[in-house]
Amino acid sequence: EIYLHGLLEERVPGYPTDLSALEDAAREVLAPGPFGYVAGAAGTGATLRANRAAFDRWAIVPRMLRDVSVRDLSRTVLGTRLAAPVLTAPVGVLSIVHEEAEPAVARAAAALGLGSVLSTASSTPMEEVAAAAGDGPRWYQLYWARDPEVTASLLARARAAGFTHLVVTLDTGMLGWRPRDLDQAYLPFLRSTGIANYLTDPAFRAGLAKPPEEDPFGAVAHWAGMFSNPALTWADLAWLREHWDGPVVLKGIVHADDARRARDAGMDGIVVSNHGGRQVDGALGALAALPGVADAVGADLAVLFDSGVRTGADIVKALALGAEAVLVGRPYVYGLALGGEDGVRHVLRCLLAELDLTLALSGHASVGELGRDSLVQQGV
Ligand code: FNR
């Protein structure tokens, strides 16, 4: 399609297809605060770099003459049928990059048959995003608030809005040390409607001294003291089970023992993730954790993966190392910044096209054929 438009000397779709060029293009259209918030990482950026380096340590070994003329990228993950094993990762406060924000992401993903996970820190109330997802899958990410009544209230609302799967983020008991945001004194939650789900929540409002309209600063301070809870332990998962009757996926697992604990606690899945390198500086690259975790629990739990996925080849590697599906973060946010829903669709379509080509050219007709023997480890 792109080549055909090239014949007509139109540069369509008008966005870069190389995802690192996409980051540069997004830098041009975003103010320094929002760009730094999205692109930034914890501390020196060592974990962000480790995420990419971990992909470079694995190489795909293409196989020939295996009839790859008909291909199947689809996969069912925890009962959710996906056209390809790709979901958009939960990213908060998307209104700071484009006014179309979270509903645009939900629409773009649903139109392509992909999954989409809505952040608790959404800048759009969850009911509106649920409506935008239409018939598409509805997964909700929870930042587990300090006040159990607020958490229970958010979960009840998510259920009522038709969200079926819960992704509980465990690696953000507090925000990481993020020099780019600190240097610019930029925290989007203080500047946008990024706490929409809290501000519209009855249990949250009940705890406020004054209504958020009268005292927006007080509401934000209340939110900041509430948004996540560093005191949580494995024992608290029982409470979660009582308040959510669908599948529960724990996000932020990078140790095989934690994966086993998730299984023993009756969880349905995990996301092997280091939050895109935004929390612990000097942590291991997320892909380096994947094989050990998949070996430990892959037969018992749905193992998903994120942090550093930028290309179709990356998706092939993560699937070959034991992920059932991947989540993609920053790339689609850059697409949103550049072109709203159209930009998100562009990024997701590029990823799917490259996944399809890489799969075929390496001799696989379906994502189910990928395994550890599809790769070799290379010394870098
Ligand atoms: C995030 N991430 C995140 N995760 C989450 O569970 N809830 C959230 O609200 C957010 N917010 C958020 C904002 C921004 C700007 C980014 C970049 C990331 C983490 C996200 O879900 C995912 O783990 C990473 O983005 C994956 O890494 P890549 O694909 O960005 O390298």
UniProtKB/TrEMBL annotation:
Domain FMN hydroxy acid dehydrogenase: 11-380
Keyword Ubl conjugation in annotation: no
Binding residues for glyoxylate: Y37, Q141, Y143, R178, H275, R278
PROSITE patterns named among the record's database cross-references: FMN_HYDROXY_ACID_DH_1, FMN_HYDROXY_ACID_DH_2
UniProt xrefs under InterPro entries: Aldolase_TIM, Alpha-hydoxy_acid_DH_FMN, FMN-dep_DH, FMN_HAD, FMN_hydac_DH_AS
Alphabetized Pfam families for the sequence: FMN_dh
Designated name of the protein: Alpha-hydroxy-acid oxidizing protein
Annotated source species: Yinghuangia soli
